[in-house]
From TrEMBL:
Signal peptide: 1-17
Keyword Repressor: no
UniProt-annotated stretches for the region Disordered: 29-51
Cellular component annotations (GO), alphabetically ordered: apoplast
Name of protein: Protein EXORDIUM-like 5
Keyword terms of this UniProt record: Apoplast, Secreted, Signal
InterPro entries: EXORDIUM-like (IPR006766)
Family (UniProt): Belongs to the EXORDIUM family.
Localization per Swiss-Prot or TrEMBL: Secreted, Extracellular space, Apoplast
Protein backbone atom coordinates (compact mmCIF):
# COMPACT_ATOMS: atom_id res chain seq x y z
CA UNK A 1 0.00 0.00 0.00
CA UNK A 2 1.58 3.26 -1.13
CA UNK A 3 1.10 6.35 1.00
CA UNK A 4 1.53 9.92 -0.15
CA UNK A 5 2.93 11.82 2.83
CA UNK A 6 1.54 15.18 1.72
CA UNK A 7 -1.90 13.59 1.70
CA UNK A 8 -1.37 12.03 5.11
CA UNK A 9 -0.57 15.37 6.69
CA UNK A 10 -4.14 16.39 5.88
CA UNK A 11 -5.67 13.57 7.85
CA UNK A 12 -7.25 14.38 11.23
CA UNK A 13 -5.17 11.55 12.69
CA UNK A 14 -2.28 9.94 10.90
CA UNK A 15 -2.59 6.56 12.52
CA UNK A 16 -5.17 4.36 14.18
CA UNK A 17 -5.36 5.31 17.82
CA UNK A 18 -6.58 3.64 20.99
CA UNK A 19 -7.51 4.57 24.51
CA UNK A 20 -8.60 2.25 27.34
CA UNK A 21 -11.02 4.90 28.58
CA UNK A 22 -14.66 4.36 27.55
CA UNK A 23 -15.18 7.54 25.57
CA UNK A 24 -18.37 9.46 26.08
CA UNK A 25 -18.78 11.22 22.78
CA UNK A 26 -15.81 11.29 20.45
CA UNK A 27 -13.49 9.04 18.55
CA UNK A 28 -13.96 5.91 16.52
CA UNK A 29 -15.06 3.92 19.54
CA UNK A 30 -18.20 6.02 19.83
CA UNK A 31 -20.24 4.14 17.29
CA UNK A 32 -23.07 1.71 17.73
CA UNK A 33 -22.58 -1.79 16.41
CA UNK A 34 -25.32 -2.97 14.10
CA UNK A 35 -23.98 -5.98 12.22
CA UNK A 36 -20.77 -7.77 11.51
CA UNK A 37 -19.72 -10.01 8.65
CA UNK A 38 -17.80 -12.99 10.01
CA UNK A 39 -16.73 -13.94 6.48
CA UNK A 40 -16.04 -11.83 3.42
CA UNK A 41 -19.32 -10.75 1.89
CA UNK A 42 -21.49 -12.36 4.56
CA UNK A 43 -23.96 -10.23 6.54
CA UNK A 44 -24.44 -11.47 10.08
CA UNK A 45 -27.79 -9.75 10.46
CA UNK A 46 -27.36 -9.55 14.22
CA UNK A 47 -28.77 -6.31 15.64
CA UNK A 48 -27.10 -5.50 18.96
CA UNK A 49 -28.39 -2.03 19.71
CA UNK A 50 -29.42 -3.01 23.24
CA UNK A 51 -26.38 -5.13 24.07
CA UNK A 52 -24.22 -4.17 27.04
CA UNK A 53 -21.23 -6.12 25.74
CA UNK A 54 -19.71 -3.29 23.78
CA UNK A 55 -18.96 0.41 23.95
CA UNK A 56 -20.43 2.75 21.33
CA UNK A 57 -23.28 5.13 20.88
CA UNK A 58 -23.83 6.80 17.54
CA UNK A 59 -23.59 5.71 13.91
CA UNK A 60 -24.45 2.22 12.73
CA UNK A 61 -21.26 0.42 11.80
CA UNK A 62 -20.72 -2.73 9.75
CA UNK A 63 -17.48 -4.47 10.65
CA UNK A 64 -16.45 -6.35 7.51
CA UNK A 65 -13.53 -7.76 5.62
CA UNK A 66 -11.85 -5.61 2.92
CA UNK A 67 -9.81 -8.38 1.23
CA UNK A 68 -6.40 -7.47 2.65
CA UNK A 69 -3.97 -9.71 4.55
CA UNK A 70 -3.95 -10.62 8.22
CA UNK A 71 -0.88 -11.76 10.16
CA UNK A 72 -1.37 -15.45 9.39
CA UNK A 73 2.27 -16.57 9.61
CA UNK A 74 3.80 -17.07 13.06
CA UNK A 75 4.18 -13.55 14.42
CA UNK A 76 7.62 -12.25 15.36
CA UNK A 77 7.43 -9.23 17.63
CA UNK A 78 10.33 -6.78 17.63
CA UNK A 79 10.35 -4.53 20.68
CA UNK A 80 11.96 -1.10 20.75
CA UNK A 81 12.31 0.26 24.28
CA UNK A 82 12.63 3.98 23.67
CA UNK A 83 13.96 6.00 26.58
CA UNK A 84 15.19 4.97 30.02
CA UNK A 85 13.18 1.87 30.89
CA UNK A 86 13.75 0.24 34.31
CA UNK A 87 13.87 -3.54 33.96
CA UNK A 88 11.10 -3.92 36.53
CA UNK A 89 8.72 -1.96 34.31
CA UNK A 90 9.67 -3.85 31.17
CA UNK A 91 9.00 -7.26 32.68
CA UNK A 92 5.16 -7.19 32.88
CA UNK A 93 4.88 -5.97 29.28
CA UNK A 94 7.26 -8.64 28.01
CA UNK A 95 5.50 -11.32 30.04
CA UNK A 96 2.14 -10.31 28.61
CA UNK A 97 3.40 -10.65 25.05
CA UNK A 98 5.03 -14.00 25.82
CA UNK A 99 1.79 -15.19 27.43
CA UNK A 100 -0.20 -14.86 24.20
CA UNK A 101 1.06 -18.23 22.96
CA UNK A 102 1.69 -19.89 26.32
CA UNK A 103 -0.82 -22.69 27.07
CA UNK A 104 0.46 -23.23 30.62
CA UNK A 105 -1.29 -20.45 32.62
CA UNK A 106 -4.71 -21.40 34.02
CA UNK A 107 -7.92 -19.96 32.59
CA UNK A 108 -8.86 -17.28 31.96
CA UNK A 109 -5.55 -16.88 30.19
CA UNK A 110 -3.90 -14.42 27.82
CA UNK A 111 -3.64 -17.21 25.24
CA UNK A 112 -7.40 -17.73 25.44
CA UNK A 113 -7.88 -14.00 24.93
CA UNK A 114 -5.68 -14.15 21.80
CA UNK A 115 -7.68 -17.11 20.50
CA UNK A 116 -10.54 -14.71 19.74
CA UNK A 117 -8.19 -12.59 17.64
CA UNK A 118 -7.04 -15.73 15.81
CA UNK A 119 -10.57 -16.42 14.58
CA UNK A 120 -10.17 -13.70 11.96
CA UNK A 121 -9.00 -14.87 8.55
CA UNK A 122 -8.07 -13.54 5.12
CA UNK A 123 -9.53 -14.33 1.71
CA UNK A 124 -7.49 -17.54 1.49
CA UNK A 125 -8.99 -18.82 4.74
CA UNK A 126 -5.74 -18.35 6.67
CA UNK A 127 -6.38 -17.26 10.25
CA UNK A 128 -4.37 -14.86 12.37
CA UNK A 129 -1.58 -16.97 13.83
CA UNK A 130 -1.84 -18.21 17.39
CA UNK A 131 1.95 -18.31 17.55
CA UNK A 132 3.32 -15.02 18.88
CA UNK A 133 6.99 -14.69 19.86
CA UNK A 134 9.24 -11.89 21.04
CA UNK A 135 11.93 -12.35 18.41
CA UNK A 136 14.32 -9.51 19.33
CA UNK A 137 14.55 -6.32 21.33
CA UNK A 138 16.34 -3.00 20.88
CA UNK A 139 17.07 -0.62 23.73
CA UNK A 140 17.44 3.12 23.08
CA UNK A 141 17.79 4.71 26.53
CA UNK A 142 19.61 7.76 25.17
CA UNK A 143 16.58 9.10 23.28
CA UNK A 144 18.37 9.48 19.91
CA UNK A 145 15.31 11.12 18.35
CA UNK A 146 14.68 13.31 21.40
CA UNK A 147 12.25 13.16 24.28
CA UNK A 148 9.34 14.46 22.20
CA UNK A 149 8.36 12.48 19.12
CA UNK A 150 6.06 13.29 16.24
CA UNK A 151 4.05 10.42 14.83
CA UNK A 152 6.35 10.23 11.85
CA UNK A 153 9.38 10.27 14.16
CA UNK A 154 8.12 7.00 15.64
CA UNK A 155 8.80 5.46 12.23
CA UNK A 156 12.26 6.99 12.24
CA UNK A 157 12.94 5.24 15.55
CA UNK A 158 12.17 1.96 13.78
CA UNK A 159 14.37 3.00 10.85
CA UNK A 160 17.25 3.69 13.24
CA UNK A 161 16.95 0.25 14.86
CA UNK A 162 16.94 -1.44 11.46
CA UNK A 163 19.86 0.62 10.14
CA UNK A 164 21.92 -0.13 13.23
CA UNK A 165 21.33 -3.85 12.84
CA UNK A 166 19.65 -4.02 16.24
CA UNK A 167 16.57 -5.52 14.61
CA UNK A 168 16.15 -7.36 11.31
CA UNK A 169 13.81 -6.51 8.46
CA UNK A 170 11.20 -9.25 8.75
CA UNK A 171 8.70 -9.13 5.91
CA UNK A 172 5.68 -11.35 6.32
CA UNK A 173 6.15 -12.26 9.97
CA UNK A 174 7.48 -9.16 11.70
CA UNK A 175 5.50 -6.64 13.76
CA UNK A 176 7.43 -3.78 15.38
CA UNK A 177 6.40 -2.31 18.74
CA UNK A 178 7.76 1.05 19.88
CA UNK A 179 7.29 1.42 23.66
CA UNK A 180 8.08 4.87 25.02
CA UNK A 181 9.29 5.26 28.59
CA UNK A 182 7.78 7.44 31.32
CA UNK A 183 8.34 11.09 30.51
CA UNK A 184 8.66 10.64 26.73
CA UNK A 185 6.01 12.64 24.91
CA UNK A 186 4.51 11.68 21.55
CA UNK A 187 2.33 13.74 19.25
CA UNK A 188 -1.33 13.49 20.36
CA UNK A 189 -0.40 11.33 23.37
CA UNK A 190 -2.84 12.03 26.21
CA UNK A 191 -4.93 14.16 23.87
CA UNK A 192 -6.14 11.94 21.04
CA UNK A 193 -4.27 8.67 21.55
CA UNK A 194 -2.75 6.30 24.08
CA UNK A 195 -1.37 4.10 21.33
CA UNK A 196 -1.67 3.60 17.59
CA UNK A 197 -0.78 1.20 14.81
CA UNK A 198 -0.09 1.55 11.11
CA UNK A 199 2.59 0.49 8.63
CA UNK A 200 5.93 2.11 7.89
CA UNK A 201 6.50 4.20 4.77
CA UNK A 202 9.28 3.10 2.42
CA UNK A 203 10.29 6.75 2.03
CA UNK A 204 11.13 6.87 5.76
CA UNK A 205 12.05 3.33 6.71
CA UNK A 206 12.86 1.70 3.39
CA UNK A 207 10.22 -0.99 3.88
CA UNK A 208 6.50 -1.45 4.49
CA UNK A 209 6.24 -3.07 7.92
CA UNK A 210 3.32 -3.21 10.39
CA UNK A 211 4.06 -1.46 13.67
CA UNK A 212 2.47 -0.01 16.77
CA UNK A 213 3.38 2.55 19.38
CA UNK A 214 2.23 2.59 23.03
CA UNK A 215 3.37 5.04 25.69
CA UNK A 216 3.74 4.88 29.47
CA UNK A 217 1.14 7.31 30.80
CA UNK A 218 1.85 7.06 34.52
CA UNK A 219 3.22 10.60 34.90
CA UNK A 220 1.43 12.23 31.98
CA UNK A 221 -2.23 11.17 31.83
CA UNK A 222 -3.07 8.06 33.84
CA UNK A 223 -6.72 9.08 34.11
CA UNK A 224 -7.01 8.90 30.32
CA UNK A 225 -4.59 6.17 29.27
CA UNK A 226 -4.40 3.95 32.35
CA UNK A 227 -8.12 3.69 33.07
CA UNK A 228 -9.49 1.95 35.16
CA UNK A 229 -6.37 2.12 37.34
CA UNK A 230 -6.83 5.89 37.41
CA UNK A 231 -10.15 7.68 37.02
CA UNK A 232 -10.94 11.23 35.81
CA UNK A 233 -11.99 13.60 38.55
CA UNK A 234 -15.35 14.26 36.92
CA UNK A 235 -16.35 10.59 37.40
CA UNK A 236 -17.59 11.20 40.91
CA UNK A 237 -18.14 8.08 42.97
CA UNK A 238 -16.09 5.81 40.69
CA UNK A 239 -13.06 4.34 42.39
CA UNK A 240 -9.85 3.38 40.63
CA UNK A 241 -8.91 -0.29 40.50
CA UNK A 242 -5.62 -1.55 41.89
CA UNK A 243 -3.20 -2.55 39.11
CA UNK A 244 -2.28 -6.26 39.11
CA UNK A 245 1.45 -5.63 38.53
CA UNK A 246 1.75 -2.67 40.85
CA UNK A 247 2.36 0.12 38.33
CA UNK A 248 -0.53 2.20 37.00
CA UNK A 249 1.34 3.23 33.86
CA UNK A 250 2.57 -0.25 32.94
CA UNK A 251 -0.71 -2.01 33.70
CA UNK A 252 -2.50 0.63 31.63
CA UNK A 253 -0.02 0.00 28.81
CA UNK A 254 -0.77 -3.73 28.84
CA UNK A 255 -4.39 -3.19 27.82
CA UNK A 256 -3.52 -0.56 25.21
CA UNK A 257 -0.80 -2.85 23.85
CA UNK A 258 -3.30 -5.71 23.65
CA UNK A 259 -5.74 -3.42 21.84
CA UNK A 260 -3.18 -2.34 19.26
CA UNK A 261 -1.74 -5.80 18.71
CA UNK A 262 -5.19 -7.31 18.12
CA UNK A 263 -5.90 -4.67 15.48
CA UNK A 264 -2.42 -4.89 13.99
CA UNK A 265 -2.89 -8.63 13.49
CA UNK A 266 -6.34 -8.32 11.90
CA UNK A 267 -5.73 -5.13 9.91
CA UNK A 268 -1.96 -4.74 9.37
CA UNK A 269 -2.11 -2.74 6.13
CA UNK A 270 -5.45 -1.03 6.89
CA UNK A 271 -7.23 -3.06 4.22
CA UNK A 272 -8.52 -6.11 6.10
CA UNK A 273 -10.96 -6.12 9.07
CA UNK A 274 -12.55 -2.78 9.99
CA UNK A 275 -15.85 -0.94 9.94
CA UNK A 276 -16.68 2.11 7.88
CA UNK A 277 -15.82 3.03 4.32
CA UNK A 278 -12.92 5.36 5.14
CA UNK A 279 -9.70 3.45 5.94
CA UNK A 280 -8.20 6.62 7.44
CA UNK A 281 -10.78 6.49 10.23
CA UNK A 282 -11.76 2.84 10.67
CA UNK A 283 -13.39 1.14 13.61
CA UNK A 284 -11.50 -2.06 14.35
CA UNK A 285 -12.09 -5.16 16.46
CA UNK A 286 -10.78 -3.67 19.70
CA UNK A 287 -12.36 -0.24 19.18
CA UNK A 288 -15.80 -1.82 19.43
CA UNK A 289 -15.01 -3.04 22.94
CA UNK A 290 -13.12 -0.15 24.54
CA UNK A 291 -13.88 0.00 28.24
CA UNK A 292 -15.25 -3.58 28.43
CA UNK A 293 -13.25 -5.99 30.61
CA UNK A 294 -15.90 -8.42 31.80
CA UNK A 295 -19.49 -9.60 31.59
CA UNK A 296 -22.00 -6.77 31.77
CA UNK A 297 -19.41 -4.17 30.76
CA UNK A 298 -20.37 -1.07 28.85
CA UNK A 299 -21.51 2.48 29.41
CA UNK A 300 -18.52 3.29 31.63
CA UNK A 301 -18.78 0.05 33.66
CA UNK A 302 -15.80 -2.27 33.23
CA UNK A 303 -17.84 -5.42 33.78
CA UNK A 304 -17.18 -8.20 36.24
CA UNK A 305 -13.51 -8.90 36.86
CA UNK A 306 -11.57 -10.78 39.53
CA UNK A 307 -9.48 -9.57 42.44
CA UNK A 308 -6.51 -11.22 44.07
CA UNK A 309 -5.82 -11.46 47.80
CA UNK A 310 -4.39 -7.92 47.77
CA UNK A 311 -7.42 -6.45 46.03
CA UNK A 312 -5.71 -6.05 42.65
CA UNK A 313 -8.05 -6.38 39.68
CA UNK A 314 -7.40 -8.74 36.76
CA UNK A 315 -9.18 -10.78 34.10
CA UNK A 316 -6.31 -12.81 32.57
CA UNK A 317 -3.59 -15.09 33.85
CA UNK A 318 -0.16 -15.11 32.24
CA UNK A 319 3.29 -16.64 32.49
CA UNK A 320 5.46 -16.32 35.61
CA UNK A 321 2.33 -16.02 37.72
CA UNK A 322 1.45 -12.69 36.15
CA UNK A 323 -2.07 -11.35 36.01
CA UNK A 324 -3.39 -8.71 33.65
CA UNK A 325 -6.48 -6.60 33.11
CA UNK A 326 -7.11 -6.40 29.36
CA UNK A 327 -10.10 -5.12 27.41
CA UNK A 328 -12.20 -7.55 25.39
CA UNK A 329 -12.27 -7.74 21.60
CA UNK A 330 -15.07 -8.33 19.13
CA UNK A 331 -15.82 -11.97 18.41
CA UNK A 332 -17.13 -12.90 14.95
CA UNK A 333 -18.60 -16.08 16.46
CA UNK A 334 -20.85 -14.62 19.16
CA UNK A 335 -21.03 -11.27 17.32
CA UNK A 336 -20.31 -9.34 20.52
CA UNK A 337 -17.36 -8.35 22.66
CA UNK A 338 -15.82 -11.39 24.26
CA UNK A 339 -13.12 -12.40 26.71
CA UNK A 340 -12.16 -15.68 28.38
CA UNK A 341 -13.47 -14.41 31.73
CA UNK A 342 -17.02 -14.14 30.37
CA UNK A 343 -19.63 -15.56 32.73
CA UNK A 344 -21.88 -16.86 29.94
Amino acid sequence: MICNLSFLFLLPTLLLAASPFPHGGKGKADMQVARMSSKPGEDSGGLLSSSKRYEGSSDLVHLRYHMGPVLSSPINLYLIWYGPWPAALQAPLRDFLLSLSDPAPPPPSAAQWWSTVSIYSDQTGANVSRRVAVAAEAHLPGLPRGASLSRLAVQLVIADALAAGSLPVDHGRGAYLVLTAPGVTVQDFCRAACGFHYFTFPSLVGHTLPYAWVGHSGVQCPDLCAYPFAVPTYMAGVGAMRPPNGDVGVDGMVSVLAHELAELATNPLINAWYAGEDPTAPTEIADLCEGVYGSGGGGGYTGQVSKDELGRSFNLNGRNGRRFLVQWVWSPVVKACRGPNALD
